[in-house]
Input
Amino acid sequence: MTPKDLPHLPPSEPAFAGFRGTAAPCLTLTVNGREHSVVADPTDRLSLVLRDCLGLAGLKQGCLEGECGACTVLVDGEPVNSCLILVFQVQGRSITTVEGLEAPDGTLSPLQKAFVEHGAVQCGYCTPGMVMAAQGLLNRNPSPDEREIRHALGGNLCRCTGFQGIVDAILSQAAQ
Amino acid sequence: MSVGVRTTSPRDLTDLASLTCGYSGPIAFIAGGTDLIIKQSGMDWPGLVVDLTRLSEIGAIRVSDTMAEIGAATSLTAVAAHPVLNRELPVLTQAAAQVGSVQIRNRATIGGNLASAVPAGDLLPVLKCLDCRVEIRRRDGSVQRKGFDELVVGQAKTSLANGDLIARIAIPLRHGPNRASAFAKIGLREVLTIARLNLAAVADFDREARRINDIRLVAGAIGPVPLRLDTVETVLRGRVVGQQLADDALQALVAVVDNTIRGRRSRPYKRRAIAGLGLDLLQGLFGRAFEPPHEMRFPA
Output
């Protein structure tokens, strides 16, 4: 899902957060199975650092209040709003973004494919958050029913699809 | 860049005390951050920001025969899913399960909900209803205990001094077949919604005789702090559950709204909402023993 032209920096080289002062410390984050050193303000939101330092622009910073869910990532396997976490709090935790679901050769995960096949994507803004909330649900409950899926998506807003395609896509991934 | 801000993630309370003891400036404690980060948005953080998510001493639930002790940094997901709490204190687990979304509950903590002390906080009426005692760690490492009313003193206002940390919340347990408790909430949506009104109740209910021996009832989001509903308790205490009782209880609940928020624009909505919530609550408390009335009457 990551556009391949995004500036991915090698993990050995600390990424720079932009014009945020000169004395910002170096933090170590484990994202999508790889350790990254980032130069960032420890009180920056995780969502900002993932996007601006690591180029993981799948997640969106929508409302910055935990209402829209577009910034959803997994921390230690559980879905969370990355806009409501200070980056220093998750050093040493395992962070998974939507980019981490695809195979190394860029093949989409079965859940991502299901989103495409079921027309669960229109403008695409909410999609990475939806996918990660769904992945979090499937991690905990491999065979959710429609009610459980809708409940698990309560923290993710979509203004295009009317949700049905999204629910169908996730339902298709529920273990029989 | 937050200039001069120190961030730290202590591993135990001794570590924490050694950090805070020699520090006299303002401290921000952060666990889930789901309220605090929004509140701090666009503002400078205090000189010391302490992450509480690695303090396992205050991140667990311990239940003994007489007491449930919940670490303040326990997530609402963990509170809602705890099997013993589900059995002993459904009022608490039901409330925790209705806060925010899955993402919020995975981060938000019981201590944070209490410390923010906002009028619509879902756990506030519950913790008041359960007569909790709150263990507070002071900057120098000393320990203080406060009851709910000593801690939550106004709208989004606690009696915590800067550097005071809510460490644990202790809730007395009363066992027996008569024990019943329930929570009811209404907001604009079913999930991820701020309570327009919520109710928490704990009762001693004789299931055989269908009699309410005793009851404690607290409402939230109706004033700056949770409100104990003594007048409604008086109507319910000692009575047998049935249609007449439900009718009387709902009238008493509506009277609470009328008296508490007399001049407020939300009054017409909340006087109807509290009646509906009252029905949910009675059903949650008494289950099949309670049949809702066929018709609800509203005083003019």
Summary: DSSP finds five helices and six strands in chain A.
